[in-house]
Design brief:
Layout lengths: L1 H25 L2 H6 L3 H27 L1 H6 L1 H23 L3 H6 L1 H23 L2
């Protein structure tokens, strides 16, 4: 059962990766980055790329070796990291991001908030298993 949930989480993580290639057009990244100092635009792009790479790694690990999270101390530690990562992302979604954007895209705001919360909850649960 838990291996299946981890695989489902892996698919969800890969869908988040795909979403990260669609979001720049919706939020007009190019146009917005052009208005800031070149260096800050470069930092933004690199940080976005690192996040995509990190989420891709999480998703691939979930699909490739779901038992890793359940059978090893290292796997539970990784699950703990992922749980905190996604739990923090929920906090960012609802308590830091501009409320106007949440009002403009209410479905997606709630959808991603719930998805990030589910990922955080699942991985924190796994990390606490003996």
């Amino acid at each position: 059962m838990m291996e299946t949930l981890i695989r489902v989480a892996g698919v969800g993580l890969l869908l988040i990766v795909v979403a990260n290639f669609l979001v720049p057009r919706v939020f007009r990244y190019r146009e917005n980055i052009a208005r800031c100092d070149r260096f800050f635009g470069q930092v933004f792009v690199i940080h976005a790329a690192y996040i995509i790479y990190t989420v891709l790694g999480m998703g691939l690990l979930c699909l490739w070796r779901p038992e890793f999270f359940l059978t090893t101390v290292e796997g539970r530690a990784m699950a703990g990291f992922m749980g905190v990562f996604w739990g923090a992302r929920v906090m960012v979604q609802f308590f830091y991001y501009d409320r106007e954007m949440m009002r403009r895209y209410p479905f997606w705001s709630v959808f991603f908030g719930v998805a990030f919360g589910a990922l955080g909850g699942l991985f924190l649960l796994i990390s606490c298993k003996p």
